[in-house]
Amino acid sequence: MRNYWLCFVPLFVAVDAIGVLPLFMNLTHGVKPLRVRKIVFQSVITALVVALVFCAIGEIILNLLGITVSDFMIAGGVLLFALSLYDLISFDKHQHKVDVQSLGAVPVGVPLIVGPAVLTTTILLLRQYGLAPTITAVVVNVAIAGVVLWFSQAIIRTLGKTGAKTVSKLASLLLAAIGVMMVRKGVMMLFVR
Asked: Using the 8-state DSSP alphabet, how is residue 100 labeled?
């Protein structure tokens, strides 16, 4: 049980369901509620499939490409830092034209729910705690993200526009810190060899 919680907490921070919420609301603005529910379902299925396939063959793929875990951590950390920095300093997020049919798969399922932070964290947790606690933690965290997105309208109403922006900025700050930590750990792994 202890190993499960040691896997759950970092994945909970990496998935960051509340941080994804304002962007999800922006992407689905004006979309009918029934279609939004289909998007949530599609995003959860996509995120689960990608995460579980990555659990099974992610390290093999990285080895075939000659990418070390430290390389992946550094790249993922830089990407996370850049995305979170953009979110932190942007004041007005313009709504982008998106394909509603594939919105659940891309960008919501991947990379918003399951992105570089989740994939990198998953590889590290698999190495440290094994398959069962890591997969369980992945499934539970993706399910939590699905529930948060499913009740997105109610959560936004409760938090209010200002509250949602505040939570989003705090989550972005946390993601920036996680990005820096991933780069630091990746660089340290390079020097340990």
From this structure: T
